[in-house]
Design brief:
The protein has 4 helices and 3 strands. By secondary structure, it is an alpha/beta fold.
Length: about 140
């Protein structure tokens, strides 16, 4: 029920635990089966900071090869990224690409309170500080 009318989904797995990719594949199947047919799904491998060269914890090794996850994402028609939530590597890119890939017609026809002929748009690349007096850099 929660994702049936979702326009996008982010399915995250841990690059240091192979079992999480298998679980992520299950969620992708569920979304493809239950969600809207035009849903944009991003597969995101997280925790790359733990496996990058020179990381603080050399005891952690990559269990999900980049090539394997990327090939699966391509085969399933998913956006694919590797990120580090801890160090914010590539996190913005995930959401920007999702927004770019949501069909504009779908957005315009499904926005509550907005006529489908409206030209209202959201500028994702705009500097939020111009209209935001909050010094925390929060865009909300």
């Amino acid at each position: 029920m929660y994702y049936r009318n979702a326009q996008a989904a982010v399915v995250v797995y841990d690059v240091t635990k192979a079992s999480t990719l298998e679980k992520a594949k299950g969620w992708v199947k569920e979304l493809q089966r239950q969600a809207h047919s035009q849903i944009v799904i991003a597969l995101v491998g997280n925790k790359v900071d733990l496996v990058e060269e020179g990381s603080e914890d050399d005891s952690v090794s990559r269990q999900v090869p980049l090539e394997e996850a990327s090939a699966y994402a391509s085969e399933a028609g998913l956006l694919f990224f590797e990120t580090s939530a801890k160090s914010s590597v590539n996190v913005d890119s995930v959401f920007i690409e999702i927004a770019k890939n949501i069909p504009h017609e779908y957005l315009m026809n499904n926005r509550s309170g907005v006529n489908s002929g409206s030209s209202a748009r959201l500028d994702l690349l705009r500097d939020g500080s111009a209209n935001n007096k909050n010094s925390s850099n929060c865009a909300c």
